[in-house]
Amino acid sequence: MADDVNNKPQNDRHNSRRLRLQTLVRLRWLAVGGQAVTVFIVAFWLKFPLPLVASSLLIAALAGVNFFLTIRYPPTHRLEPPAAFALLGLDLLQLCALLFITGGLANPFAALVCVPVIISFASQPIRYSVALIVFAMVCITILAFSPFPLPWFNGAEINVHNVMQFGVWCSIASTMVFAAFYAYRVSMEASQLADALAATELVLQREKHLSQLDGLAAAAAHELGTPLATISVVAKEMERELKDDDRFREDVQLLRSQSERCRDILKRLTSLSAEGDAHMRRLPLSSMIEEIIAPYREFPIEVELIEKSPRKGEPVTERNAGIMYGLGNLIENAVDYAREKVTVTVEHDHNKVLIIIEDDGNGYAPDILTRIGEPYVTKRQKEDTAGGLGLGLFIAKTLLERSGATLVFENRDPESEGARIRVEWPRMLIDANSTK
Questions:
Q1: List of residues 6+ apart from 316 with CB closer than 8 A
Q2: Of the candidates 252, 327, 258, 338, which has an alpha carbon nearest to the alpha carbon of residue 295?
């Protein structure tokens, strides 16, 4: 069903991410403030020798660019990837220049070069982020050869051994790579989850729309009743006035007969809505399962329904578009990957309602079992596994869990190949009579 949504290219999702300028501006003001306070403390409180003019110019340059961006663009402006790359690269260059004249890698704030890289990997396309991290690696390599000493007490100088310099370089580089990869993975998973949840809402909205068509038909019948009654009255008057006129008699009779036909159709629609509304909204569990299975009985794969509990006293549930779509999707996946047969077992008692969907395919691969339910997991090949694992399964799982169900995905017993899905609700959640 919704597996087609899984065809959305991931590159489109990556390229659609845009960094908001105001977010970057606020971070840069924080950087300006932090740099200014640090320079002030080092120069005037600790009284360490510091290239104060050069440091102040670098901080003022960053503040000037930030001020220009603030007045030039509206707060809602979003940066294209090249523009974001340029600004983050400028931030990195300004920070490294400040570090270069204050001790290079010996400066304890050298690790801050990781910040622009992490921001890029969390919000920008991968090609721009990779370019930025390469630029950052070049910058920290240059910092290792800084000729400027670390600001320190008068008469004292800190000489960092080359091995220590190399160790600091490795520490910053490894931190940068690890943090960048972590930020990228978290950002991608969050983006995929957001897209998948949006697709879930669209599917649920569509299902609810379809289930509400009977109400729309009744409303249409009510609204059209008055104009059709007027047309029918006018047609009768015309028929009475023109009954002796051969030119119009047949046309007027046809107009009257068709208006009466329309009234009969609308009457049936109104009657169907009034008499069958309760039936359509509340139905026994067995009827719901039969309705879900019905579209798949025409497939070459046999779909067998096993009812372990008697129908007497079975739950009577409200028609739930999410439940019906979710179960239908699971059954469809089972049919797709079964060899000959899909078995749907229904069981209920006073405490629970259990539905088990089994197929006789090859089952789930061990590495897939731990990832079932994640959005955008690559769909598996029929000859390898059973059951779809794309966005459709994520949507089905999400909709069923929203209804209070617990889902378990597993392989069948070793002697019988295939996949098994257990869907279980507390009876009080699915039985409409329990809330009456």
A1: 282, 283, 284, 285, 431, 432, 433
A2: 327
Q: What is the pLDDT of residues 218-227, one digit of tens each?
A: 566 656 766 7
Element (H, E) at 354: strand 352-359
Burial level of 177, CB count in 10 A (0-12/13-18/19+)?
middle
Outline where DSSP puts E strands in 231-329: 282-284, 302-307, 316-318
At 351, give phi and psi (nearest 5°). Answer: -110, -30
The token pair that represents 47 in the structure block: 């009284």
> The tokens of 259 are what?
């208006």
> Is residue 390 within 8 Å of 376, Cβ to Cβ?
yes
Backbone torsions φ then ψ of 345, nearest 5 degrees: -110, 130
Asked if residues 141 and 169 have their Cβ atoms less than 8 Å apart, the reply is: yes
Note the pLDDT tens digit of each residue in 369-384.
777 766 655 444 454 4
DSSP secondary structure letter of residue 64:
H
Amino acid at 427: R
Mean of the per-residue pLDDT values of the chain: 81
Q: Is 388 exposed, middle or buried (0-12, 13-18, 19+ CB in 10 A)?
A: buried
Q: By the 8 A CB rule, do 425 and 322 touch?
A: no
By residue count, the chain amounts to 436
| Model confidence, pTM | 0.57
Q: What is the DSSP string of 387-427?
A: S--SHHHHHHHHHHHHTT-EEEEEE--TTS-SEEEEEEEEH
**Average pLDDT of 413-427?**
88
- Residue 250: name the closest of 263, 261, 264, 239 by CA: 239
Residue 356 DSSP SS3: strand
Q: Which residues contact 31 (CB under 8 A, 6 or more apart)?
A: 62, 91, 95
Name which of 90, 104, 88, 92 is nearest 51 in CA terms. Answer: 104
- Cα–Cα nearest to 220, from 173, 268, 157: 268
